[in-house]
Design a protein that fits this description.
alpha+beta, Type Iii Antifreeze Protein Isoform Hplc 12, 6-stranded antiparallel β-sheet, two-stranded antiparallel sheet, 12 strands, rod-shaped
Amino acid sequence: MNILKNRTVLGLVCIVLSLIICFGLTPLFNSAVQSQVEIVRMTTDVRQGEMITADMVTTIKVGGYNLPADVMKETANVVGKFARHDMLNGDYILSSKLSDFPLAEFAYLHELDGTREAMSITIKSFAAGLSGKLEAGDIVSVIASDVGDFRMTLAPPELRYVKVLAVTESTGYDVDNTPGSGGNKDDDERQLPSTITLLVVPEQALILAELEATGRIHCTLVYRGDAANRDRFLQIQDEFLNPSEDEPETEVTPVIPVTPDADGQEVSPDGE
């Protein structure tokens, strides 16, 4: 304790500490600030749920000091992932913004196996889309009005049972009505549905494209419930589109109208 009271000793200690700071800690700090690391950065805007491809990102060198710990440094760890949030051109990519799997909202687009397709149709009026009540997973029937020059109303049997994949607002975001999703907003914040995306086979897609171009499409709700019952409706539709060769075709006999003659006897159109 007597040594610490000696001003000369205290002065020497302070000088030694200052030398350690100036020639030891300060160079290390400057080196950390000036060090360059390679990170991955966005080169275009990406929307939530979109898969990131190689042409959307690039690598750049930036100062390594105070960078987020989860910043991505290898493009191989970014390409093929899905965006959890919207990202803008120039944003650093963090691991917390990426998902290895498609988001639930967009998963339906990544489950297509080539036998079925996703096709969107326009909701041209509020009533045509069941007043905004349709949800993903619903089974609907498609009806078209004002079709062609004769303004016919058609209910194609090929579109009797069709599954809804998504209902999309004019903003481009899908409506999410699952509990806890936040999809039920206040009335002044809600957007009216603009399109409905349906799960179809190529034959159905051709019919929908024709009805979209020549008429006004309406969707009627057939079923909303558990997956087992929903799949039964789709199976019935598949059997209609692809009848089994083992089952004999049902011949439809036309009904011929008859009219009574002067004596009250029924006479067919050919006079017999």
